[in-house]
Design a protein that fits this description.
Layout: H1 2-11, H2 19-28, H3 38-52, E1 54-55, E2 64-65, H4 69-82, H5 88-100, H6 104-111, E3 115-116, H7 133-138, H8 141-154, H9 170-177, H10 187-200, H11 203-216, H12 222-235, H13 240-249, H14 254-266, H15 276-285, H16 292-302, H17 312-325, H18 336-357, H19 359-370, H20 380-391, H21 395-410, H22 416-425, H23 427-431, H24 434-445, H25 450-466, H26 469-483, H27 488-504, H28 506-510, H29 513-517, H30 528-543, H31 553-564, H32 569-586, H33 598-601, H34 607-624, H35 628-644, H36 649-667, E4 668-670, E5 684-686, E6 696-698, H37 700-713, H38 728-742, H39 752-755, E7 758-760, H40 774-798, H41 804-829, H42 855-872, H43 876-879, H44 886-901, E8 934-939, E9 945-951, H45 955-973, H46 993-996, H47 1000-1031, H48 1043-1064, H49 1075-1089, H50 1098-1110, H51 1119-1133, H52 1139-1154, H53 1169-1185, H54 1189-1206, H55 1224-1240, H56 1251-1273, H57 1281-1309, H58 1314-1341, H59 1344-1347, H60 1350-1370, H61 1400-1411, H62 1430-1453
Parallel strand pairs: 2-3
Antiparallel strand pairs: 1-2, 4-6, 5-7, 8-9
Helix pairs in contact: 1-4, 2-8, 3-4, 3-5, 9-11, 10-11, 11-13, 12-14, 13-15, 15-18, 16-19, 18-19, 18-20, 19-20, 19-21, 20-21, 20-24, 22-25, 24-25, 24-26, 25-26, 25-27, 26-27, 27-30, 30-32, 31-32, 32-34, 32-35, 34-35, 35-38, 36-38, 37-40, 38-40, 40-41, 44-48, 45-48, 47-48, 47-49, 48-51, 49-50, ...
Length: 1454
């Protein structure tokens, strides 16, 4: 059809000359003066049409057409032109048409398509679809303008009631006649008339006309009509949608489009919500690449989705009001919530379409959101946009959205409150992006950052709460996948989420109990703590109060009984944990419920349930009797359950009475005559705190002897064993929790256990441990381990008691622990192959670490040998192996002087490696740190003071508690590092099973509560060393110094700073809800310096805290402690305030520590591996915080090192006392690394740089190259292999940085700063020559640790040569570049003999090159400006030749 229309237009093109005449006829004869009869007029129009092939119909019948449309138009045109009355006949024709369409039915028929005439002979020549009669006539050029005027004059008649009989809109039909005409001959006039109609027409007609503009007008009129529409848009917002729809199809200029878009953006606030999607679509689809960022930024500001949707409470209230107000005859209107959600969905779909198909739009959204830096400025649209960007198929958008979300969450800019608000108000919208939400939640949960993990868990929780059952299934399935991943942190969070969902929504979760039960197949990879959580949530589902998941009860019972009956300890452990968790769910206390039946009316357990729970406990107990480890685990698990769960009082009573009877029967004996029996050592009661002679005692030694004897007899007899000492401490823990529950925290009934003695042996046996047999030594070690673990559990139980007497006994027990540990160290040193008994049963098994237990005794032997070597030799520090902890470094460095003070030099081992074999101390034990001087008065029979006892926390006990606190904080507050791939997993959670059950937030809060006590101890340490310095005239190694006390106080000082540093380094402080906790912590430090009630800002708190900590700098006893203080100051300064000022003070402090001579209490200089590590970190801190790194490097390398060279062999540098020959490698490595890092930060040269900027960058590079030259030349003096390795490694890195960043600067600066460039390259050439000599030395030495660095270094050196040549060529000075030969030499400058075969010519050339190093080649006079570059080019090409020779040699040898 369209092709036919185009042909007709072309054929009628010849009649274009009559258009003007037709217009004149129409304009002059619209109302003719001469009356013309109606019959005559009708006969002209009707006859012409009938002759042309169209039969006019009346009524409801459409007009018939018997010929093709083109034929009809040609016939009409021919009849008009051949008429003798032409051109007047045209006006008569139009008049007849007007008369004919006066009848509405006739008019409607002319607007409707014609019907092909059904005559057989003509049917083949007529198309199946025909245009309307008026549209056919509009295709005739001479009639078009007149007919258009007629139609537009006719249109107002139908504006009010435009619907015809058939329901068709007459105005719309009239407008449709004007669309897609082959040609409009007077388009400007048509546009004017249409705009006039728009100004007077109703809204519906206006919309039809406006949306038809692109189909009616030609491109030449688009800009004019767009301006008119833009003006109309400012006046009438009701026409926003049609106008923007028209704009989208108009061909507009860029300037006009920008103007229109700005006008639309300005009126966004007044646009109706349902029209907003069209507005957003127009804005984004009309944007150009150049202004995308600005448009997106403005759109984000204008798009206030928070105002588009009402909160759920208001939605519900409005819905009720509408329902009440609705008429009874019609249903209530739909609530606005659904329509608003639909509108928001459409808006996001428009944005999604733009993001998907316009890369610039997606990038602009990411940049705009990234630039938002305030929490308050983040809106719902930001979170929705991240989901939209992630849902697109473009990988770049997905990665960008994921990265940006992680950054925003990590910095606290996007918080959980915003996520919750988005899910609450836009659940319907969010549902469409559920796949992206799920993928992002999975990614966040796998992150090592706890902030991201928490946010990912919140996304999972909100998705489950806000979406449908399909999403529930996907969420549970994803969490189950996380649990089965094997990554510890991921598994913990997923299990925590599942437990939370079971608690909050048990009915919904019960549907997916089978999913969760599937995790049971993957329990081999789960830790005991994770298994405990798994069985907790499964038992809650199966045996909870409502028992929604009762269908898995039988499966749970089967699994538990199967595991309990297993002979494999691992599976028996799982069975015990699962059974105890089921007991906790079945026996949980249920509050009183009204109307639920007699059995639950009083809220207590039924007798049947109590019987089942008791039977299950008996089953577990009986199955654990065969193994002491299983029995101990049962006690520990039951203790954890009672401490964390509120059980039914009946069940608590049953358990409490049973465990009390078992404990008294198994472990308690009366103090009487001496115990007799076949014991390895004589038995006696020791460590009794109560004054009376009678009482009870813990029967430890006899039980241990019987246990050892029964182990030997058990191989031949299957007798039931008696109580095992392994169960002593776990049983006490269970007894303590039962008593606390039954008596609301009061332990009066069992307080005798705090002061009762243990049946041990006289500890004088330790003095002759070397003379004991191996069995006796093993027995003594085991006895000491059990005694220490008993005291640790006693301290756990009674540390929270408020009585002064109890507190004093707790402190005494701490003293007992520290004393027994010193004895144990000596016994372990004499028992190298000893494996301690297990003590922590509810956590990770210690089986995996028993292989490393032989380490400490071996280290003790090596240390002893090292000490002997130290007396004979001088380099003993390299042979000593130090423990990992910083506190152990102090002990190892200062152990010799202390032992010299003792009568005998007894060997000992560190108990650090044995930490997993001691009972875990509860966090509450740390409250002892807050206890000051405790005293009590003992009265005689006449109530007179008999004696006054005082107990104070001593240095040894303080170190003991601080070490434990340090380990706990490292485990809870420091981020866990992922184990390398294919590396055996070393479980760091051994010994922290109770701590794992607490969140890091709880631990941090408890630490903040302890901060006042920690500050007090810190100040005491400061005062101690201040007094020591004043008493010894400013030195620590005076004759009156108690070395043991010095060591303990130094360790305490360091541990206190480490604890504070870990606390303030906790990443959780960045979370929005914990900012107040950070302010509280800083307030404690600031309050020690500045008292006052006024509330301080965060910046002020940081300032005063920094000043308070800075005051301790004068009494730091060791370099390790100095490092801890520097790290703590750096951590505190990052919390807010003037960062530059804090950096300067931190650098000054580090410089002070580096310029201090560190000695031990014996007067010897500190040394060793740990000292070197601390020095490395402290020097790094200094160079990271100093303002000018290059100047600092030059100061150390240019002043400190020459002072060292001029000093005696064992002396240090004058200005840097920590720099000596033993620590030179540490300094050298740090200086090279920081120099390379500083070079990478120098901005690259640009063509647009002015002279001043180029000069500044050249000066910076000159300093860097000069520092590099100094450091490289130091290899001539310090030529040890480690120094060479450092120089080769960082020399290549610095050279690569120079090629990447420095050479572009030389390219642009050569013409302006020739002298500076020459000087720089000349200095650098000297350094590269030395690097060549080092390569030659590496080849001679044939040391693979050196030669591994040579190929990459020589490649960079060759690139440097060619890069210089390219720079000269770029500046038209290539003639200054020439080639020479450079000999291979070693570090001493001697020629490498293997190169003699190259011939005498090369030797002569090489000698000439060496002589010409500082000479210039003769150049023509006109090239004198380039002479400055000449000598450098010579040296570079010498390097090039050397590279060629060396690469050949390397290919032959390697």
């Amino acid at each position: 059809m369209m092709r036919k229309k185009r042909r007709s237009s072309t054929e009628n093109g010849g009649a274009a000359s009559t258009a003007t005449k037709a217009k004149k006829s129409r304009s002059t004869g619209r109302h003719p003066k001469e009356p013309v009869s109606e019959e005559t007029n009708e006969s002209v129009f009707v006859s012409f049409v009938r002759k042309a092939g169209v039969t006019l119909k009346h009524g409801g019948t459409s007009n018939d057409i018997a010929v093709d449309q083109v034929v009809f138009q040609k016939r009409i045109q021919r009849q008009l032109q051949k008429s003798p009355r032409y051109p007047g006949i045209i006006q008569e024709f139009i008049t007849g048409l007007e008369s004919f369409i006066e009848n509405p039915d006739n008019f409607r028929n002319c607007l409707l398509p014609c019907v092909p005439q059904s005559s057989d002979e003509d049917s083949s020549s007529v198309s199946s679809f025909q245009e309307s009669l008026l549209r056919l006539l509009l295709g005739i050029e001479m009639l078009q303008t007149l007919i258009i005027n007629t139609l537009l004059e006719k249109l107002p008649e139908f504006m009010i009631d435009g619907a015809a009989d058939g329901g068709l809109s007459i105005p719309r039909m009239i407008i449709n006649q004007l669309k897609w005409l082959d040609r409009v001959f007077d388009t400007k006039e048509l546009a004017v008339k249409l705009m006039e109609l728009v100004s007077v027409a109703p809204v519906e007609v206006q919309c039809d006309i406006i949306t038809s503009f692109p189909e009616i007008l030609e491109d030449s009129q688009h800009n004019d009509i767009a301006r008119d529409l833009n003006s109309l848009l400012q006046e009438n917002t009701q026409l926003t949608v049609p106008i923007l729809d028209a704009f989208s199809s108009l061909n507009l200029s860029s300037l006009l489009l920008t103007e229109v878009r700005g006008a639309v953006m300005a009126r966004m606030a007044s646009v109706q919500l349902e029209d907003l999607p069209i507005v957003v679509k127009f804005i984004l689809h009309s944007v150009s690449a150049s202004d995308t960022h600005e448009v997106v930024c403005n759109l984000r500001k204008k798009l206030e989705l928070e105002q588009c949707v009402l909160p759920p409470v208001l939605q519900a209230s409005q819905s009720r009001l509408k329902s009440k107000g609705a008429a009874a005859s019609r249903p209530a209107s739909t609530p606005a919530a659904g329509s608003s959600q639909d509108s928001v969905t459409l808006i996001l779909e428009c944005i999604k379409s733009a993001v998907r198909f316009q890369k610039t739009v997606s990038e602009a959204w990411l940049k705009v959101m990234e630039s938002v830096e305030d929490v308050e400025d983040h809106k719902v649209i930001d979170l929705l946009m991240l989901f939209i960007l992630h849902s697109t198929n473009a990988n770049q958008s997905r990665r960008g959205a994921e990265r940006l979300l992680k950054v925003k969450v990590r910095t606290g800019l996007i918080q959980e409150t915003l996520l919750q608000k988005t899910f609450r108000d836009y659940a319907q919208v969010m549902r469409g992006y559920f796949p992206s939400i799920l993928a992002l939640a999975q990614s966040l949960l796998r992150s090592p950052d706890p902030c991201l993990v928490s946010f990912g868990g919140h996304m999972y929780r909100q998705s489950f709460s806000g979406f449908d059952s399909y999403c529930h299934q996907e969420v549970v399935g994803s969490l189950v996948t996380h649990v089965c991943s094997g990554v510890s942190a991921e598994v913990d969070m997923a299990l925590q989420l599942l437990c939370g969902l079971v608690t909050e929504k048990p009915t919904e979760m019960a549907l997916y109990a089978v999913f969760v039960k599937g995790i049971l197949d993957y329990m081999d990879n789960l830790t005991p703590q994770q298994i405990r959580k798994l069985f907790h949530l499964l038992s809650r589902l199966a045996f909870g109060q409502q028992q929604q998941g009762a269908h898995i009860q039988d499966d749970m019972h089967i699994i538990i009984r199967k595991q309990l009956s297993s002979t494999v300890p691992k599976y028996k452990r799982i069975g015990i944990i699962g059974a105890v968790m089921i007991v906790g769910s079945m026996g949980a206390f249920r509050p009183k419920i009204e109307g639920k039946g007699k059995e639950t009316q009083n809220g207590s357990l039924t007798q049947e349930t109590l019987r089942q729970v008791t039977a299950l406990l008996e089953l577990v107990k009986s199955s654990a009797e065969s193994s002491p480890e299983a029995a101990a685990l049962y006690y520990d698990e039951l203790a954890n359950l009672i401490s964390s769960t509120q059980l039914d009082p009946q069940l608590e009573e049953v358990i409490g009475v049973g465990v009390l009877d078992d404990f008294q029967q198994d472990f308690i004996v009366d103090i009487g005559p001496e115990k007799t029996g076949s014991f390895p050592f004589p038995a006696c009661a020791m460590y009794k705190l109560d004054g009376n002679q009678d009482g009870i005692a813990i029967n430890l030694l006899p039980l241990l002897a019987e246990d050892n004897q029964s182990k030997g007899e058990q191989q031949n007899k299957n007798e039931q064993k008696g109580p095992s000492p392994l169960c002593l401490s776990p049983c006490l823990r269970l007894l303590r929790f039962c008593e606390e529950k039954r008596h609301k925290g009061d332990l009066e009934d069992i307080d005798g256990l705090l002061g009762c003695p243990l049946i041990l042996t006289d500890m004088d046996v330790v003095e002759k441990v070397e003379s004991l047999s191996k069995a006796e030594r093993d027995f003594l070690c085991t006895l000491l381990f059990h005694a220490i673990n008993w005291f640790r559990e006693v301290v756990n139980g009674f540390c929270k008691q408020n009585e002064t007497e109890d507190k004093m006994k707790v402190m005494t027990r701490l003293q007992n622990i520290t004393y027994l540990q010193t004895l144990l160290e000596r016994v372990l040193a004499a028992t190298p192959s000893y494996v301690p008994p297990s003590s922590n049963f509810d956590g990770e098994s210690t089986e995996g670490i028993t292989l490393n237990i032989t380490g400490p005794p071996n280290r003790a032997k090596k240390d002893g040998a090292g000490k002997k070597r130290k007396a004979a030799g001088k380099n003993s520090s390299e042979g000593d192996t130090q423990p990992e902890e910083a506190t152990e470094a102090e002990e190892s460095q200062q152990e010799l002087p202390e032992k010299e003070k003792e009568k005998e030099n007894r060997p000992g081992v560190s108990l650090t490696a044995y930490r997993a074999f001691f009972r875990e101390l509860d966090v509450e034990v740390l409250s002892v740190l807050g206890c000051g001087l405790l005293s009590r008065t003992i009265l005689d029979s006449e109530l007179h003071t008999k004696v006054r006892e005082e107990v104070l926390l001593g240095p040894a006990e303080l170190v003991f508690l601080l070490e434990d606190m340090h380990h706990k904080l490292e485990f809870s507050l420091m981020p866990a590092k992922r184990a390398p791939f294919l590396k055996a997993r070393v479980d760091k959670s051994v010994g922290f099973s109770h701590l794992q059950q607490r969140s890091s937030k709880d631990i941090a809060t408890y630490c903040v509560q302890l901060l006042p006590a920690l500050c007090t101890h810190l100040e005491n340490c400061h005062n101690h060393f201040q007094t020591l310095l004043s008493d010894n005239n400013g030195v620590v190694d005076g004759p009156a110094t108690d070395r043991q006390e010095y060591q303990l106080m130094s360790s305490s000082y360091q541990l206190l700073l480490q604890v504070l540093n870990i606390t303030f380094s906790w990443s959780g402080f960045s979370q929005p809800g914990l900012r107040n906790l950070l302010k509280k912590a800083l307030g404690v430090l600031a309050g020690r310096l500045k008292q006052g009630d006024a509330e301080l800002t965060l910046e002020q708190l940081v300032k005063y805290s920094f000043e308070y900590l800075l005051n301790f700098r004068s009494t730091i006893p060791s370099l390790s402690t100095a490092l801890c203080l520097s790290q703590l100051l750096s951590t505190v300064s990052e919390k807010g305030g003037h960062v530059a000022a804090y950096r300067e003070q931190t650098a000054s402090l580090a410089r002070r520590f580096l310029s201090q001579l560190w000695v031990t209490a014996s007067g010897e200089r500190e040394r060793g591996n740990k000292f070197n590590e601390a020095l490395h970190t402290l020097l790094s801190i200094y160079l990271e915080h100093v303002n000018d790194v290059l100047k600092a490097v030059e100061e150390i390398a240019g002043e400190g090192v020459p002072e060292l060279l001029n000093a005696a062999k064992d002396e240090s540098s004058t200005s840097w006392p920590t720099l000596n020959r033993q620590t030179f490698l540490v300094y050298y490595k740090v200086l090279m690394a920081k120099l390379d890092k500083a070079a990478k930060k120098i901005p690259a040269g640009k063509t647009s740089d002015n002279t001043e900027a180029q000069s500044e960058k050249l000066l910076t590079w000159n300093l860097a190259v000069r520092d590099f030259h100094i450091l490289v030349n130091l290899v001539k003096v310090f030529d040890s292999r480690p120094v060479l390795i450092v120089c080769l490694k960082y020399g290549r890195l610095f050279l690569e940085s120079f090629l990447k960043l420095g050479m572009p600067l030389l390219d642009h600066s050569f013409k302006r700063h020739k002298e500076d460039v020459q000087c720089l390259l000349k200095t650098f050439q000297l350094s590269t020559r030395q690097l060549h000599h080092m390569c030659g030395h590496s080849k001679i030495s044939q040391d693979t640790s050196l030669t591994n660095h040579v190929p990459a270094l020589k490649k960079s050196l060759e690139l440097f040569v060619y890069r210089v040549k390219a720079m000269l060529t770029l500046n038209n000075c290539q003639e200054a570049f020439w080639i020479g030969n450079l000999k291979n030499r070693n570090l001493k400058g001697e020629e490498i003999l293997s190169q003699r075969s190259q011939g005498s010519d090369d030797d002569d050339d090489g000698d000439d090159d060496e002589e010409e190093d500082n000479q210039r080649l003769p150049l023509p006079e006109e090239q004198s400006d380039d002479e400055a570059q000449e000598s450098d080019s010579e040296g570079n090409k010498k390097n090039n030749t050397m590279e060629d020779v060396e690469e050949d040699d390397l290919s032959e040898d390697y």
